[in-house]
Amino acid sequence: MAQISIHDDTISLSEPFLVEGLPGLGLVGKIATDHLIEAFSMRHYASVHCDGLPRIGVYHPEDDELKPPVRIYVDPERDLLALQSEVPISSEGAPEFAACVTGWLAENEVTPLYLSGRPAEKDDSPEVYGVATGGASDHLDRAGIVPPRETGFISGPTGALLNHATETGLSSVGLVVESDPQFPDPEAARALIQGAIAPITEIEVDIERLVEQAEQIRGQREQLAKRMQQAGEDESTQATPVGMYQ
Question: What is the pLDDT of residues 182-229, one digit of tens each?
Fold first, then answer.
C-alpha cells in the first residue's frame, strides 16, 4: 500500500520545512540535502513507500539495516525535514509519487522546498531564483529571492511535485540554481544552501566542509550523474528556459 511510514511518532514538529533532494541536473538538490542531513546529524524519521518508486533495498557501509531508496530525515530542533533519494524516479512513476508525497505534506502542514538545477555557464557565483505555489511567495520575499528572468519549466520528478502542488493549492517553494549540465556541482549546491535554503528556513548552516570537499563530492557523485544522463531528461529534474532550449 502506498504510504509514508513514520518511525518515531513521539517527535513533535511545528509547521516544518522539507528540503527535497531528488537526483537531478548537477545533482544540486541531492548534494545540498545530503549535506544538511550530515551537518545536523538528522535522524531517519520516515520511509517513503509511494507507488512509482523502484522496489529495491539500499544498504550502507557499517550498517546492517536495509533501507528503502527514498527516506525522510528530521531535525526537531530546527523544525526541518529532508527527503533523501538514492535513485532516480521514472517519468511513469513520477505522478503517483508526487500525489503520495503531496498528500502527506498537506496532512502534516509541511512546506516543501523543491530544488532544481538550470543548465548555465557560470563566471561568478551561481544565481538562485525562486517560484512559489499556494501563497508561499512570502518566503521568497522575506529571503530576497527573485523569480527567473525568462519563461521556462521544471521537468522530472521535481516538476511533477510542483505541478501537483499547483493543482492542490499546497504552499511550496521551487528553487532554481545555475548549474553545470554535465557534472556534479557542489558549488551550485552551496549557493542553494547559502542563498536560499538557509534564509528561508532561518537556520545557520556551515558550508565550509562542502566547499573543502568539492572535488571529493564530484568524484563520488559522478557515477550517479552518468546514470541520470543515461536515463534522460524524463527522470532528471532540471529547469529549462523555453527561449534558449526549445
Answer: 888 999 999 999 999 999 999 999 988 776 766 666 555 556 556 655
Indicate the residue type of 151: T
Residue 198 is which amino acid? A
Can you give the pLDDT at residue 244?
38
Q: Exposed, middle or buried by CB within 10 Å (0-12, 13-18, 19+), for 52? A: buried
The CATH topology of domain 3-245 is Rossmann fold (3.40.50)
- Name the residue among 78, 89, 97, 105 with its Cα closest to residue 29: 89
| Residue keyed to cell 548537477 | 26
